[in-house]
């Protein structure tokens, strides 16, 4: 009989399509800048439409920002989310740290055989490099106030539509 030809997609480290992405940071930054540009109160429904999700997910995610003191929430008709801090006082790092368990990198140490000295040596090097990379990234995030991001955008009313 004929052999069936099978094509496998090999996942490479540098291939962004092969890694699971955590988009919460980008999405929350998106929301905070939109809230600033719109002013006033923004409902969970409005945020859900913006992020192509549902209001329950929005409320759960925005709760982390409320707990960090970045936004306040009001229930009931006319309620929603309001910025509690000026964007000059919020950095990308602040928002990143407010997200409970953000994984910055998709790579990590192996945990196949704790007794293997080779695995232990590899893991030490990987962990050291990841710690250094995370520290550098968090430092860079700390240098970007959200007001700078907002400054790159004209208000939705000025450009005629919202994205």
TrEMBL record:
GO terms for molecular function: DNA-binding transcription factor activity. Pfam families: Rrf2. One of its GO terms (cellular component) is cytosol. InterPro entries: Tscrpt_reg_Rrf2 (IPR000944), WH-like_DNA-bd_sf (IPR036388), WH_DNA-bd_sf (IPR036390). This is HTH-type transcriptional regulator YwnA. It comes from Achromobacter dolens.
């Amino acid at each position: 009989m004929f052999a069936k030809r099978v094509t496998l997609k090999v996942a490479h480290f540098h291939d962004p399509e092969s890694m699971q992405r955590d988009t919460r940071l980008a999405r929350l930054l998106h929301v905070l800048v939109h809230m600033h540009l719109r002013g006033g109160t923004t409902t969970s429904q409005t945020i859900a439409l913006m992020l192509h999700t549902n209001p329950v997910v929005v409320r759960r995610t925005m709760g982390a920002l409320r707990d960090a003191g970045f936004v306040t929430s009001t229930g009931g008709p006319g309620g929603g989310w309001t910025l509690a801090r000026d964007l000059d006082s919020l950095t990308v790092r602040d928002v990143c740290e407010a997200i409970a368990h953000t994984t910055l990198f998709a790579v990590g140490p192996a945990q196949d055989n704790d007794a293997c000295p080779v695995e232990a040596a590899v893991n030490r090097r990987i962990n050291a490099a990841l710690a250094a990379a995370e520290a550098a990234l968090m430092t860079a995030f700390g240098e970007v106030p959200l007001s700078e991001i907002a400054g790159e955008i004209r208000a939705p009313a000025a450009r005629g539509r919202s994205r």
